[in-house]
Amino acid sequence: MKNILITGATSGLGLMLSRHFNNKGFDLVLTGRDKKKIISLKKELKDKNKPNCFALDLTKKKNFLSFLRIIKTKKKIDIVIHCLGGGFGMHSPNISKDDLNFLFNINVSIAVGINKVILDEKKYNKDLKIIHIGSVASIESTASVGYSMVKASLIAYTKSLSKVLINQNIFIHCVLLGAFEYENNSFERLKIRNKKIYNQFIKKNLPMKKIARAENFLGLFDLLTSVAGDPLAGSSIVADYSETNSFRI
What we know:
Mean pLDDT: 93
Strand content: 15-25%
CATH class: Alpha Beta
CATH topology: Rossmann fold
Largest sheet: 7 strands, parallel
Strand order of the largest sheet: 3-2-1-4-5-6-9
Helix content: 40-55%
Shape: globular
Low-confidence stretches: none
Order of helices and strands: EHEHEHEHEHHEEHHEHE
Number of strands: 9
CATH architecture: 3-Layer(aba) Sandwich
């Protein structure tokens, strides 16, 4: 039975993947900052397994350090998926240093810190797989300045770390997702908040003229969490239904 750690597990992609891998019989370690949501998720998933769920806002240093200590006490991990992140409505192109530091922390630094403890403490089984959730905004600057910047750094981190660790059977990926919907993610919230802008985005940016569902990407995550996905290590994999002009994988 595989052990999987998922950050940002209470909404959007993290929630979908938590449900998916629970159904596949994985042992889960899940984090989310909303206590009510993490309790609800634990109740939902407990019939199949008994997931380890932690309600922690990892942007708070005390909570982050507490979670690192928790990782050190857990059994070894096979797969890590970092879903924690977002743009948090910071749309100004003239972003402040404090706002940029916040975005970098929640989208990059927290994942880096968790990875470091897992790697330093050797809290992983053979053939560890680490997946970072990036964005197509990182290669085409289609979102806010701050969000595009910090997601772009995940590409360099993934490639650089992968080149160093692949000879230890540690496989690191970055998935650059286009627009999609799932429970309480940004596009679902936009649809509720401003249907006009939501429809304009679809008409202007999406060749299919409809938005993808997160479930459409499940096959990709099944691939990357299996041996079959190992040759893609270090890659930034675009999954966007031709939303962008990228020539990447």
